[in-house]
Design a protein that fits this description.
Length: 64
């Protein structure tokens, strides 16, 4: 099992962006790499569109 995230990525990440298919794909790709969701998403409205944020963590090898 891999102890560190691939490609030099940090163990903790927060992805943000418009609530659209591209954002969902970015989160899905991180999950496919082995990251786990951390907490619930944050959602806000910037006056034009809905913006979301999702934290992800790389689990310790014992949890994988």
């Amino acid at each position: 099992m891999i102890d560190q995230p691939p490609n030099g990525l940090p163990r903790y990440r927060v992805l943000t962006g418009p609530d659209d298919e591209a954002f969902c794909r970015r989160v899905s790709e991180a999950i496919d790499l082995g990251f786990r969701l951390h907490g619930t998403p944050a959602i806000t409205f910037n006056g034009e569109r809905v913006i979301v944020a999702q934290a992800l963590v790389w689990p310790p090898s014992a949890e994988k």
